[in-house]
Amino acid sequence: MASPAKKTAEKLNLSKSRPSIQQMFDEVAPTYDFLNHLLSLGIDNYWRAAATSRARKLLQGVPSPRILDVATGTGDLADSMSKIDGARVTALDLSPEMLTIARRKYPSIEFHEGCAEELPFPDASFDIVSAGFGVRNFEDLRKGMQEFHRVLKPGGHALIIEPMIPRTPVLKNLYLVYFKKVLPKIAGLFSKSTFAYDYLPHSVEQFPQAEAFTAILRESGFRSAEYRPMTFETSILYIAKK
Questions:
Q1: Strand partners of residue 241
Q2: What is the pLDDT of residues 5-26, one digit of tens each?
Q3: Closest CA to 58 of 144, 168, 196, 156
Q4: What is the rounded end-to-end Cα distance, in angstroms, of the chain?
Q5: For residue range 176-191, what is the model confidence (pLDDT) as tens digits?
Q6: Which of 81, 91, 140, 181 could form a disulfide with 72 if both were Cys (CB 3.0 to 4.6 A apart)?
Q7: Each residue of 160-184: b (16+ CB within 10 Å) or e?
Q8: 3-state secondary structure the chain
Q9: Whole-angstrom distance, CA of residue 109 vs CA of residue 84
Q10: pTM for the full predicted model
Protein backbone atom coordinates (compact mmCIF):
# COMPACT_ATOMS: atom_id res chain seq x y z
CA MET A 1 0.00 0.00 0.00
CA ALA A 2 1.33 3.43 -0.96
CA SER A 3 2.26 5.78 1.86
CA PRO A 4 0.29 9.06 2.32
CA ALA A 5 3.33 11.02 1.15
CA LYS A 6 3.59 8.93 -2.02
CA LYS A 7 -0.13 9.31 -2.72
CA THR A 8 0.17 13.08 -2.33
CA ALA A 9 3.16 13.16 -4.70
CA GLU A 10 1.26 11.08 -7.26
CA LYS A 11 -1.75 13.41 -7.02
CA LEU A 12 0.50 16.45 -7.48
CA ASN A 13 2.15 14.91 -10.54
CA LEU A 14 -1.25 14.21 -12.12
CA SER A 15 -2.64 17.62 -11.26
CA LYS A 16 -1.48 19.43 -14.41
CA SER A 17 -4.21 17.98 -16.59
CA ARG A 18 -6.40 20.72 -18.00
CA PRO A 19 -9.57 19.67 -16.08
CA SER A 20 -7.60 19.46 -12.81
CA ILE A 21 -6.10 22.92 -13.24
CA GLN A 22 -9.50 24.39 -14.11
CA GLN A 23 -11.14 22.78 -11.09
CA MET A 24 -8.35 23.91 -8.76
CA PHE A 25 -8.56 27.55 -9.83
CA ASP A 26 -12.36 27.51 -9.77
CA GLU A 27 -12.11 26.41 -6.13
CA VAL A 28 -9.60 29.09 -5.06
CA ALA A 29 -11.20 31.94 -7.03
CA PRO A 30 -13.12 33.52 -4.09
CA THR A 31 -9.94 34.00 -2.00
CA TYR A 32 -7.39 34.20 -4.82
CA ASP A 33 -6.74 37.95 -4.78
CA PHE A 34 -6.59 38.21 -1.01
CA LEU A 35 -4.17 35.30 -0.65
CA ASN A 36 -1.97 36.47 -3.52
CA HIS A 37 -1.42 39.81 -1.82
CA LEU A 38 -1.09 38.31 1.65
CA LEU A 39 1.31 35.49 0.79
CA SER A 40 3.55 37.70 -1.36
CA LEU A 41 3.42 40.53 1.22
CA GLY A 42 2.01 42.73 -1.53
CA ILE A 43 5.10 42.41 -3.70
CA ASP A 44 3.06 40.79 -6.49
CA ASN A 45 1.86 44.28 -7.38
CA TYR A 46 5.46 45.37 -7.94
CA TRP A 47 6.15 42.36 -10.16
CA ARG A 48 3.19 43.17 -12.39
CA ALA A 49 4.25 46.82 -12.52
CA ALA A 50 7.75 45.76 -13.59
CA ALA A 51 6.36 43.67 -16.46
CA THR A 52 4.10 46.53 -17.53
CA SER A 53 6.99 49.00 -17.43
CA ARG A 54 9.00 46.70 -19.68
CA ALA A 55 6.04 46.35 -22.07
CA ARG A 56 5.65 50.12 -22.20
CA LYS A 57 9.30 50.52 -23.28
CA LEU A 58 9.00 47.77 -25.90
CA LEU A 59 5.87 49.39 -27.34
CA GLN A 60 7.30 52.87 -27.81
CA GLY A 61 6.36 54.04 -31.27
CA VAL A 62 3.74 51.31 -31.76
CA PRO A 63 0.34 52.92 -32.46
CA SER A 64 -2.67 51.32 -30.71
CA PRO A 65 -0.73 48.26 -29.49
CA ARG A 66 -2.64 45.05 -29.01
CA ILE A 67 -1.88 43.01 -25.88
CA LEU A 68 -3.02 39.51 -24.96
CA ASP A 69 -2.82 38.41 -21.31
CA VAL A 70 -2.93 34.62 -21.00
CA ALA A 71 -3.79 32.76 -17.77
CA THR A 72 -5.15 36.12 -16.64
CA GLY A 73 -6.76 34.82 -13.45
CA THR A 74 -8.75 37.68 -11.98
CA GLY A 75 -7.28 40.13 -14.49
CA ASP A 76 -4.77 42.17 -12.48
CA LEU A 77 -1.94 41.97 -15.03
CA ALA A 78 -4.36 42.64 -17.89
CA ASP A 79 -5.56 45.74 -16.05
CA SER A 80 -1.99 46.90 -15.46
CA MET A 81 -1.20 46.47 -19.17
CA SER A 82 -4.35 48.41 -20.09
CA LYS A 83 -2.76 51.54 -18.55
CA ILE A 84 -0.25 51.69 -21.43
CA ASP A 85 -1.20 54.56 -23.74
CA GLY A 86 -3.49 53.42 -26.55
CA ALA A 87 -3.31 49.74 -25.61
CA ARG A 88 -6.15 47.39 -26.47
CA VAL A 89 -6.06 44.47 -24.07
CA THR A 90 -7.61 41.04 -24.48
CA ALA A 91 -7.35 38.42 -21.73
CA LEU A 92 -7.90 34.67 -21.53
CA ASP A 93 -8.16 32.10 -18.75
CA LEU A 94 -9.17 28.47 -18.31
CA SER A 95 -11.24 29.03 -15.16
CA PRO A 96 -14.80 30.36 -15.54
CA GLU A 97 -14.93 31.26 -11.83
CA MET A 98 -11.79 33.37 -12.14
CA LEU A 99 -13.23 35.07 -15.20
CA THR A 100 -16.46 35.90 -13.39
CA ILE A 101 -14.42 37.88 -10.86
CA ALA A 102 -12.20 39.41 -13.55
CA ARG A 103 -15.17 40.69 -15.56
CA ARG A 104 -16.68 42.21 -12.45
CA LYS A 105 -13.41 43.95 -11.53
CA TYR A 106 -12.47 45.16 -15.00
CA PRO A 107 -15.56 45.50 -17.23
CA SER A 108 -13.66 47.44 -19.92
CA ILE A 109 -11.35 44.48 -20.70
CA GLU A 110 -12.40 41.76 -23.15
CA PHE A 111 -12.13 38.37 -21.40
CA HIS A 112 -12.26 34.96 -23.08
CA GLU A 113 -12.48 31.46 -21.63
CA GLY A 114 -9.95 29.13 -23.21
CA CYS A 115 -6.59 27.40 -22.90
CA ALA A 116 -3.10 28.54 -23.83
CA GLU A 117 -2.39 25.54 -26.03
CA GLU A 118 -5.26 26.46 -28.38
CA LEU A 119 -5.46 30.25 -28.43
CA PRO A 120 -8.63 31.35 -30.30
CA PHE A 121 -6.89 34.17 -32.18
CA PRO A 122 -5.43 34.52 -35.70
CA ASP A 123 -1.71 34.45 -36.43
CA ALA A 124 0.23 37.68 -35.84
CA SER A 125 -2.57 39.40 -33.89
CA PHE A 126 -0.72 40.92 -30.91
CA ASP A 127 2.27 43.13 -30.15
CA ILE A 128 2.67 41.72 -26.62
CA VAL A 129 1.60 38.44 -25.06
CA SER A 130 1.87 38.48 -21.27
CA ALA A 131 1.35 35.89 -18.56
CA GLY A 132 1.61 36.37 -14.82
CA PHE A 133 2.28 33.29 -12.67
CA GLY A 134 0.33 30.92 -14.90
CA VAL A 135 2.68 29.40 -17.47
CA ARG A 136 3.95 26.70 -15.11
CA ASN A 137 0.35 25.37 -14.95
CA PHE A 138 0.10 24.72 -18.70
CA GLU A 139 -0.67 21.12 -19.54
CA ASP A 140 1.73 21.28 -22.51
CA LEU A 141 4.36 23.98 -21.92
CA ARG A 142 6.01 23.81 -25.34
CA LYS A 143 2.73 23.92 -27.21
CA GLY A 144 1.68 26.91 -25.12
CA MET A 145 4.90 28.76 -25.99
CA GLN A 146 4.45 27.91 -29.67
CA GLU A 147 0.96 29.44 -29.47
CA PHE A 148 2.39 32.58 -27.85
CA HIS A 149 4.82 32.80 -30.78
CA ARG A 150 2.09 32.15 -33.37
CA VAL A 151 -0.24 34.94 -32.25
CA LEU A 152 2.53 37.54 -31.89
CA LYS A 153 3.29 39.95 -34.71
CA PRO A 154 6.82 39.82 -36.15
CA GLY A 155 9.02 41.69 -33.70
CA GLY A 156 6.46 41.26 -30.91
CA HIS A 157 7.37 40.13 -27.41
CA ALA A 158 6.25 37.63 -24.80
CA LEU A 159 6.53 38.81 -21.18
CA ILE A 160 6.18 36.06 -18.60
CA ILE A 161 6.36 36.36 -14.80
CA GLU A 162 6.94 33.25 -12.71
CA PRO A 163 8.01 32.53 -9.14
CA MET A 164 11.72 31.76 -8.85
CA ILE A 165 13.60 29.59 -6.40
CA PRO A 166 16.63 31.66 -5.28
CA ARG A 167 19.99 30.21 -6.22
CA THR A 168 21.87 31.66 -3.24
CA PRO A 169 21.91 28.75 -0.71
CA VAL A 170 20.80 30.75 2.36
CA LEU A 171 17.96 32.48 0.49
CA LYS A 172 16.96 29.22 -1.16
CA ASN A 173 16.64 27.43 2.18
CA LEU A 174 14.60 30.25 3.72
CA TYR A 175 12.40 30.45 0.64
CA LEU A 176 11.67 26.72 0.58
CA VAL A 177 10.83 26.62 4.28
CA TYR A 178 8.34 29.46 3.77
CA PHE A 179 6.97 28.02 0.53
CA LYS A 180 6.55 24.43 1.72
CA LYS A 181 5.82 24.80 5.44
CA VAL A 182 4.49 28.28 6.21
CA LEU A 183 2.58 29.28 3.07
CA PRO A 184 0.25 26.23 2.92
CA LYS A 185 -0.65 26.66 6.60
CA ILE A 186 -1.51 30.35 6.16
CA ALA A 187 -3.48 29.59 3.00
CA GLY A 188 -5.37 26.86 4.82
CA LEU A 189 -6.75 29.42 7.25
CA PHE A 190 -8.53 31.28 4.45
CA SER A 191 -9.10 28.76 1.65
CA LYS A 192 -10.99 25.48 1.52
CA SER A 193 -8.68 24.29 -1.26
CA THR A 194 -5.58 23.38 0.75
CA PHE A 195 -4.44 21.17 -2.13
CA ALA A 196 -3.92 24.24 -4.32
CA TYR A 197 -1.31 25.58 -1.92
CA ASP A 198 0.43 22.21 -1.63
CA TYR A 199 0.49 22.16 -5.43
CA LEU A 200 1.98 25.67 -5.65
CA PRO A 201 5.52 24.92 -4.33
CA HIS A 202 5.52 21.62 -6.22
CA SER A 203 4.71 23.37 -9.49
CA VAL A 204 7.46 25.96 -8.93
CA GLU A 205 10.06 23.28 -8.21
CA GLN A 206 9.06 21.31 -11.31
CA PHE A 207 9.11 24.29 -13.68
CA PRO A 208 12.26 24.82 -15.81
CA GLN A 209 13.96 27.88 -14.39
CA ALA A 210 16.08 30.68 -15.90
CA GLU A 211 18.33 29.29 -18.66
CA ALA A 212 16.24 26.11 -18.96
CA PHE A 213 13.07 28.06 -19.75
CA THR A 214 14.74 30.55 -22.10
CA ALA A 215 16.00 27.51 -24.04
CA ILE A 216 12.40 26.30 -24.39
CA LEU A 217 11.35 29.75 -25.61
CA ARG A 218 14.03 29.66 -28.32
CA GLU A 219 13.04 26.12 -29.28
CA SER A 220 9.47 27.42 -29.65
CA GLY A 221 10.56 29.84 -32.36
CA PHE A 222 11.56 33.01 -30.50
CA ARG A 223 14.61 34.82 -31.92
CA SER A 224 15.86 35.83 -28.49
CA ALA A 225 14.96 35.16 -24.86
CA GLU A 226 16.32 36.59 -21.64
CA TYR A 227 15.35 36.74 -17.98
CA ARG A 228 15.47 39.27 -15.15
CA PRO A 229 15.35 38.02 -11.54
CA MET A 230 13.37 40.24 -9.16
CA THR A 231 13.17 40.71 -5.38
CA PHE A 232 16.10 38.57 -4.19
CA GLU A 233 15.44 35.99 -6.92
CA THR A 234 11.96 35.15 -5.61
CA SER A 235 10.35 36.09 -8.93
CA ILE A 236 11.60 36.20 -12.51
CA LEU A 237 10.56 38.07 -15.65
CA TYR A 238 11.18 36.40 -19.01
CA ILE A 239 11.32 38.51 -22.19
CA ALA A 240 11.22 36.75 -25.56
CA LYS A 241 11.18 38.37 -29.01
CA LYS A 242 9.59 36.91 -32.14
A1: 157, 224
A2: 344 444 445 457 888 899 889 9
A3: 156
A4: 50
A5: 999 888 888 888 787 7
A6: 91
A7: bbbbbbbeeeeeeeebeeebeeebb
A8: CCCHHHHHHHHHHHCCCHHHHHHHHHHHHHHHHHHHHHHCCCHHHHHHHHHHHHHHHHCCCCCCCEEEEECCCCCHHHHHHCCCCCCEEEEEECCHHHHHHHHHHCCCCEEEECCHHHCCCCCCCEEEEEEECCHHHCCCHHHHHHHHHHHEEEEEEEEEEEECCCCCHHHHHHHHHHHHHHHHHHHHHHCCCHHHHHHHHHHHHHCCCCHHHHHHHHHCCCCEEEEEEECCCCEEEEEEEC
A9: 13
A10: 0.92
Domains of the chain (ranges plus CATH)?
Answer: 15-241 (3.40.50.150)
Separation CA 192–CA 39 (nearest Å): 16
pLDDT attached to residue 3: 39
CA separation for the pair 12, 123 (Å, rounded): 34
CA distance 217 to 73: 22
Residues present in the chain in total = 242
In degrees and rounded to multiples of 5, residue 43 shows phi and psi of: -75, -15
